[in-house]
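testing teh design pipeline on a random one, pls ignore if ur not involved
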């Protein structure tokens, strides 16, 4: 395979390659520190346990890192980054907050990548494992240094030949697992619930004895090839994927059957809660897709086995620019849960437009008790492009996800600034300018692409670019119901009843349009265009203003980027991408403003140009 040049990402201060011979996190830690600090400046005391905990002590410029086998590796990266950025060393013993910090790669085995915006798969091609070991090792360093410890290697939509990952391709799986093991990264595989059918059985019914035995035997073979496999991930009864409902079994029955097959090996069964009717009739205004997951899973709370983790997207829909927190994350009390976020910018600019996610994650963790979930999981934004993520700044989201997984109380500005300095190595003033730009980027995007909680106004299928009625007359349950008088869906008690899924305090907040936060107003309420907002503007004026302002803010990013001493080729790429972003922002501004102007007939109070 031809080796492409790739960015060193935030590991610029470290040497490009590690020796191929390193087999344990402790060895990696020693090697990274020896080349960064020099031999004789540090000691590593690994206690032999598998703990991820560590402590760092300094005495007269000599550093001692103590901890478990994996812990000392995290300690080494913490020390290196602290010395590089001038940050304080942690006090006492520290360990990552979540034991499972998962990156979900939606890679297909033929090499494409579902919702991928940065080239092709880093490890699959033409139905086989196919990768540069050097590059995968570098990936391992990136993941470890960010704190990520599980890599799900294939998309949850498991099609042939990905089903074979747990059958004919076990030796490839084992080799790949071995490459990432020294970085404390364990693999997980997405499996197809109906796989027994592909293997020749007549059913995939989770209560059928032959099916149960088939999965047990599969688990035995898989874990004998990869003894530290983290587990299986399953998307069932969702978007045409098979599942237990086809056999009139519940999701608890389906998940528990698989969980029991893998439990003897310590495997976790990550079951995705992204289940809704994707064949809805758009004329049906009583059915609300936002209600679906809560309605399905709340009655099953407590029915899942100990090694099942229900993976729940952060909002009730599907990674829109702004959604309220999924009520399922708040409601389930007796089920292990993983929070799912999406680094791949499917609805948030596709790694062309800048969209830094840390402010969003801070909001998510502020709304839910961090302890109420036991794992975090992110859809990957990586591919084989030069910068790993298409836009070089999109790599921030991978780094920052790791930081929030290690510490859900992380501070967005600090994380962004740390990433900016480590990745670009600029002076303090320039780092601060880039940090400000990135910190504001989400609200810039939100203003031109999806304000007031209205989502889905995107081009169908590709999901990039504006199309206000693109999803309006489709079966996906994604409607804005805009007409000449009003826009939005009433999700209150008098509407679809979605608000009733929240605990009382939140229910009251959202139920009442006077208290509902502006950013979610049209998510929860259907409002006339002349509705008077808290700030004294009408709804339609706010829509116009936001689109003009969002577009202006995108345009204003260009001179800032031009002025920064970014290293090449990052600068060239940033200037190239900002041209596309500005074009996109202008299109959003003009299409959305024209759309609502045509519907409402109300002109812009400030007389700006809106096309007829
Ligand atoms: C993996 C959205 C995406 C799909 C994705 C799905 C999911 O619908 O568009 O590509 O499928 O979410 O999360 O399962």
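output:
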């Amino acid at each position: 395979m031809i080796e492409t040049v790739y960015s060193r990402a935030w590991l610029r201060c470290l040497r490009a390659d590690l020796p191929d011979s390193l087999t344990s996190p402790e060895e990696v830690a020693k090697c990274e520190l020896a080349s960064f600090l020099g031999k004789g400046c540090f000691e590593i005391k690994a206690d032999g346990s598998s703990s991820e905990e560590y402590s760092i002590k300094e005495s007269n410029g000599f550093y001692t890192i103590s901890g478990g086998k994996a812990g000392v590796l995290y300690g080494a990266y913490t020390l290196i980054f602290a010395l590089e950025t001038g940050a304080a060393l942690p006090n006492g013993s520290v360990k990552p907050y979540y034991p499972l910090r998962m990156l979900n790669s939606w890679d297909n085995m033929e090499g494409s990548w579902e919702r991928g915006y940065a080239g092709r798969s880093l490890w699959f091609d033409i139905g086989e494992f196919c990768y540069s070991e050097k590059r995968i090792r570098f990936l391992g360093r990136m993941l470890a240094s960010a704190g990520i410890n599980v890599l799900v290697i294939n998309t949850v939509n498991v099609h042939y030949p990905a089903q074979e990952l747990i059958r004919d391709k076990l030796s490839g799986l084992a080799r790949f697992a071995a490459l990432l093991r020294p970085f404390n990264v364990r693999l997980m595989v997405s499996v197809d619930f109906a796989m027994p059918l592909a293997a020749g059985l007549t059913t995939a019914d989770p209560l059928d004895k032959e099916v149960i035995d088939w999965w047990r035997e599969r688990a035995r073979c898989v874990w004998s090839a990869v003894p530290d496999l983290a587990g299986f991930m399953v998307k069932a009864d969702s978007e045409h994927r098979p599942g237990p409902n086809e056999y009139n079994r519940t999701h608890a029955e389906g998940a528990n059957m698989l969980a029991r097959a893998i439990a003897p090996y310590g495997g976790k069964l990550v079951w995705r809660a992204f289940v809704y009717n994707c064949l809805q009739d758009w004329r049906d205004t009583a059915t609300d897709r936002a209600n679906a997951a809560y309605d399905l899973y709340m009655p099953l709370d407590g029915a899942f086995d100990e090694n099942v983790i229900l993976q729940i997207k952060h909002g009730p829909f599907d990674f829109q620019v702004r959604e309220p927190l999924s009520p399922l994350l708040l409601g389930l009390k007796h089920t292990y849960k993983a929070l799912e976020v999406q680094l791949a910018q499917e609805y948030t600019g596709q790694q062309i437009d800048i969209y830094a996610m840390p402010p969003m994650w801070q909001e998510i963790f502020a709304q839910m008790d961090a302890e109420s979930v036991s794992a975090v999981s992110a859809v990957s934004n990586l591919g084989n492009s030069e910068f790993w993520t298409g836009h070089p700044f999109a790599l921030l989201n991978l780094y920052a996800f790791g930081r929030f997984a290690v510490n859900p109380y992380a501070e967005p500005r600090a994380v962004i600034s740390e990433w900016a300095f480590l990745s670009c190595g600029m002076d303090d003033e320039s780092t601060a300018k880039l940090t400000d730009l990135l910190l504001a980027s989400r609200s810039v995007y939100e203003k031109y692409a999806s304000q007031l909680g209205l989502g889905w106004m995107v081009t169908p299928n590709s999901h990039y670019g504006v199309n206000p009625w693109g999803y309006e007359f489709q079966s996906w349950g994604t409607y804005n119901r805009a007409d000449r008088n009003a826009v939005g869906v009433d999700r209150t008690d008098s509407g679809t009843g979605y608000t009733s899924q929240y605990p009382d305090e939140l229910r009251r907040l959202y139920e009442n349009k006077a208290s509902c936060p502006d950013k979610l107003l049209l998510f929860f309420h259907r409002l006339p265009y002349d509705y008077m907002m808290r700030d004294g503007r009408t709804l339609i004026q706010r829509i116009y203003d936001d689109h003009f302002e969002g577009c202006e803010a995108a345009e204003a990013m260009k001179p800032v980027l031009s002025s920064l001493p970014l290293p090449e080729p990052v600068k060239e790429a940033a200037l190239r991408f900002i041209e596309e972003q500005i074009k996109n922002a202008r299109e959003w501004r003009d299409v959305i403003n024209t759309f609502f102007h045509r519907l409402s007939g109300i002109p812009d109070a400030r007389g700006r140009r809106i096309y007829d």
